[in-house]
């Protein structure tokens, strides 16, 4: 009988605990990522510099580079400096923007990359996608997934609470992305990678009813692992489908129309909740519609509220009209992707009515 197997791209190491950064040099050597210690360390604003100094003794030949923001230009500049050295690997230390820029630079320079996250704001800490700003706005770029992932809970506890909580919204939005994928399969015959779908949905289910808060190491571990699993799901699928549906189309539209409104994870949570409102009230004849969608919507709103995350347009400073405009614009951010938004194809008046109903029905 032939043995049928599948090769799945995953990190060599995932280390989520207090004090994890202290073992970075050992991890690089033991995993044969950088046996001679010739490592470039990319840091951003915040805790990156402090962590770089913490790990420097275990990496005798390391060199530290500062990343000036999460832009394409910053990533390309870093890639040029990486190509100018004889490095075995690059370590990105910081939040989502620093890690995304480092992933892109590592991909351009052909170096393995290790991600050291200082906050848990979104699943970019361990995904094959980099979200970077450019002259026309913000775009998502395919990159090589980090070869290893480190989350030191000591540094996560020291990060701003808002950045840590935001990751909850990003993980929970996997529910909406997965249901959009299944809808696209029913309506358009799109192929669904059931392994990727299962991993993405399991990450969200593990977090949805998890007791505790971001003050708890146990909760932070589940959140960090959920973000890592979301990144792995995208790697398995070969694109962002398992973790990015109509919810992310809405957040990208808000980023373009009203830049600086809120961070990625916060907007992902609101987008997911609104998409479930649409499924509960306007989607007929599909699995996950009607009462099932209403139950999921209630669970998501409860989760977001429990952790102090925004749930309604006003929570992030948007009017109902502005949010409706973003929903209308949203499909343009991901041409070719089929979600609940493309399926319903609501016009301006219908969209505004849906937004108003969502706010009124759920206490916004």
TrEMBL record:
This is Iron-containing alcohol dehydrogenase family protein. It comes from Actinomadura napierensis. InterPro entries: G1PDH, Glycerol_DH. Gene3D superfamilies: 3.40.50.1970, Dehydroquinate synthase-like - alpha domain (1.20.1090.10). The keyword NADP applies. The keyword Metal-binding applies. SUPFAM superfamilies: Dehydroquinate synthase-like (SSF56796). PANTHER family: GLYCEROL DEHYDROGENASE, GLYCEROL DEHYDROGENASE 1. Keywords: Cytoplasm, Lipid biosynthesis, Lipid metabolism, Metal-binding, NAD, NADP, Oxidoreductase, Phospholipid biosynthesis, Phospholipid metabolism.
């Amino acid at each position: 009988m032939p043995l049928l197997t599948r090769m799945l791209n995953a990190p060599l190491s995932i280390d989520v605990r207090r004090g994890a950064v202290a073992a970075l040099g050992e991890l690089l050597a033991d995993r044969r990522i950088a046996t001679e210690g010739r490592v470039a360390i990319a840091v951003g604003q915040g805790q990156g510099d402090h962590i770089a100094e913490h790990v420097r003794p275990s990496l005798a030949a390391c060199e530290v580079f500062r990343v000036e923001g999460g832009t394409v230009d910053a990533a390309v500049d870093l890639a040029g400096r990486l190509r100018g050295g004889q490095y075995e690997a690059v370590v990105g230390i910081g939040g989502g923007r620093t890690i995304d820029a480092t992933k892109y630079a590592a991909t351009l320079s052909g170096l393995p990359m290790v991600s050291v996250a200082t906050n848990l704001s979104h699943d970019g800490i361990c995904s094959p996608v980099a979200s970077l700003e450019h002259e026309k706005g913000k775009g998502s770029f395919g990159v090589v997934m980090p070869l290893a992932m480190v989350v030191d809970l000591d540094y996560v506890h020291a990060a701003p609470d808002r950045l840590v909580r935001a990751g909850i919204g990003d993980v929970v939005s996997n529910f909406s992305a997965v249901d959009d994928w299944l809808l696209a399969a029913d309506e358009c015959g799109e192929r669904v990678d059931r392994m990727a779908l299962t991993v993405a949905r399991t990450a969200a289910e593990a977090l949805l009813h998890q007791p505790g808060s971001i003050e708890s190491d146990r909760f932070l571990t589940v959140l960090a692992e959920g973000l890592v699993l979301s990144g792995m799901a995208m790697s398995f699928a070969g694109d962002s489908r398992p973790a990015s549906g109509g919810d992310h189309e809405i957040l990208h539209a808000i980023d373009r129309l009203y830049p600086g409104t809120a961070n990625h994870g916060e907007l992902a949570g609101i987008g997911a909740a609104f998409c479930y409102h649409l499924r509960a009230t306007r989607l007929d004849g599909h699995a996950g519609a009607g009462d099932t969608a209403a139950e999921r919507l209630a669970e998501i709103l409860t989760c977001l509220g429990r952790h102090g995350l925004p749930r309604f347009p006003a929570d992030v400073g948007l009017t109902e009209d502005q949010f409706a405009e973003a929903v209308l614009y949203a499909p343009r951010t991901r041409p070719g992707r089929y979600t609940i938004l493309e399926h319903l194809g609501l016009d301006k008046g219908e969209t505004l009515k849906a937004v108003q109903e969502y706010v009124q029905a759920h206490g916004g």
